[in-house]
Amino acid sequence: MRYYPNIPDLNANSSINLLLRRAKENRTTNIEEYITTGGYSALKKALTRFNPEDILILVEESTLRGRGGAGFPTARKWRFALSNPPPRYLICNADESEPGTFKDRIIIERDPHLLIEGMIIAGYTLGAELGFIYIRGEYPAGAMILEDAIEDARKKGFLGKNILGTDFSFDILVYRGAGAYICGEETALIESLEGKRGHPRLRPPYPANEGLFGKPTVVNNVETLANIPIIVTYEMDFMNIGPMGYYGPKLFPVSGKVKNPGVYEATMDLTLRELIDMAGGMKNDKKLKAIFAGSLAVYSADEIDIPLDYSPKGFGGTGTTIVLDEDDCIIDALIVIAEFFEHESCGKCTPCRVGTYEQLNILRKFQNGTATEKDIELLEYLGKNIPVGSICGLGYSASNAIMDALRKFKDEFIAHINGECPAGICF
Ligand code: NAD
Ligand code: SF4
């Protein structure tokens, strides 16, 4: 076995033990251990008892939504691809790079066969013969673990020609990204996989209709695909897991000022408040100030009784939860996010390229005490206009956190204009 570098000792806990059944405490990279704990039995069941349409119906009934953040119904995406003639491709998007997001990492590094098994079943359902795992360059150990696990699965006959003696053949290739956040955007990912510069394409056409090499391609997130063996195993009982319409397990990466940062697994009837409790509550029993849902939204302390589901009032997204306490400065936190977007904008659209640069500079004025009321107006102007002139999710969301913070924490902006940082960090 190869030496795997840089595997952090992530804290993980679960109230339901489905996605984290093997990964909660241990790393189950050994295929024998995976098999003796029930692994690859969902694949055997899928290939021997179900035809692809049966599995599609199970995924439809499961209400599974994409766990990469957008929450798009998985079965609907699969149906779009199936409405196009083969060859079809499956891509697992393992380029998770949203600030504060490290949930896919735990599956990749601690239970890689769960993802591989999910991909094989998805490949069977989609009539695909080839799948790719596009993994971010910053996960070198994850890439090695997946390569080794894929090789072990090939040796056991779970991958390759005539899987388990059927006429279904499928293989998986691992492709490492080179550290660009934009390559997690599905069309930039496809460009990168085709050997081109990772710039997003205009959509439509969506990849399900015209993706890799112009062929119908399903791009699914790691956690989404890891749900597939669980759905096949539980069949209709999957609908007993979690609230109506949002069935199944969900992972939540929690970081910041909680006692036990880590990855948590729960059903989606959990509230944001309960998730913070699950992570041990506030560190040093400080007062909660805000939650950053990655870079996409900011919640204030009086908004944490929302469910962690995909309903209009739910938390949705990747489940990323960055917890700020009374000692944290909203401006300071926004600057981290703004620096990220300014750095990661691919530069194709002028409003995104220039706007992310400008909003960072304006936030820095709040930090160094030179901002005026006019700068609030400028931030609002950029927040309205960057998304309008952008073609991909990065540009659409680059100002979300700032706009949310302006609505919910305007007093902190005003305080900085008046030369005061409520957390005592700036100036
Ligand atoms: P989107 O809502 O445009 O699309 C979601 C998925 O549904 C895509 O796969 C898309 O191809 C498919 N789809 C949507 N409409 C379709 C149609 N009519 N026909 C066929 N397929 C269709 O979202 P997006 O731009 O792909 O992704 C944005 C999301 O990515 C954000 O919500 C953000 O949370 C998330 N994100 C996650 C990370 C991470 O690290 N996990 C990083 C950046 C962004
Ligand atoms: Fe690139 Fe930004 Fe345009 Fe997306 S919106 S394509 S990241 S410039």
UniProtKB/TrEMBL annotation:
<keyword id="KW-0004">4Fe-4S</keyword>
<keyword id="KW-0408">Iron</keyword>
<dbReference type="InterPro" id="IPR037225">
    <property type="entry name" value="Nuo51_FMN-bd_sf"/>
</dbReference>
<dbReference type="Pfam" id="PF10531">
    <property type="entry name" value="SLBB"/>
</dbReference>
<dbReference type="InterPro" id="IPR001949">
    <property type="entry name" value="NADH-UbQ_OxRdtase_51kDa_CS"/>
</dbReference>
<dbReference type="InterPro" id="IPR019554">
    <property type="entry name" value="Soluble_ligand-bd"/>
</dbReference>
<feature type="domain" description="NADH-ubiquinone oxidoreductase 51kDa subunit iron-sulphur binding">
    <location>
        <begin position="331"/>
        <end position="376"/>
    </location>
</feature>
<keyword id="KW-0411">Iron-sulfur</keyword>
<dbReference type="Pfam" id="PF10589">
    <property type="entry name" value="NADH_4Fe-4S"/>
</dbReference>
<dbReference type="InterPro" id="IPR019575">
    <property type="entry name" value="Nuop51_4Fe4S-bd"/>
</dbReference>
<protein>
    <submittedName>
        <fullName>NADH-quinone oxidoreductase subunit F</fullName>
    </submittedName>
</protein>
<comment type="similarity">
    <text>Belongs to the complex I 51 kDa subunit family.</text>
</comment>
<dbReference type="GO" id="GO:0051539">
    <property type="term" value="F:4 iron, 4 sulfur cluster binding"/>
</dbReference>
<dbReference type="InterPro" id="IPR011538">
    <property type="entry name" value="Nuo51_FMN-bd"/>
</dbReference>
<dbReference type="InterPro" id="IPR037207">
    <property type="entry name" value="Nuop51_4Fe4S-bd_sf"/>
</dbReference>
<dbReference type="GO" id="GO:0010181">
    <property type="term" value="F:FMN binding"/>
</dbReference>
<dbReference type="GO" id="GO:0008137">
    <property type="term" value="F:NADH dehydrogenase (ubiquinone) activity"/>
</dbReference>
<dbReference type="GO" id="GO:0046872">
    <property type="term" value="F:metal ion binding"/>
</dbReference>
<dbReference type="Pfam" id="PF01512">
    <property type="entry name" value="Complex1_51K"/>
</dbReference>
<keyword id="KW-0479">Metal-binding</keyword>
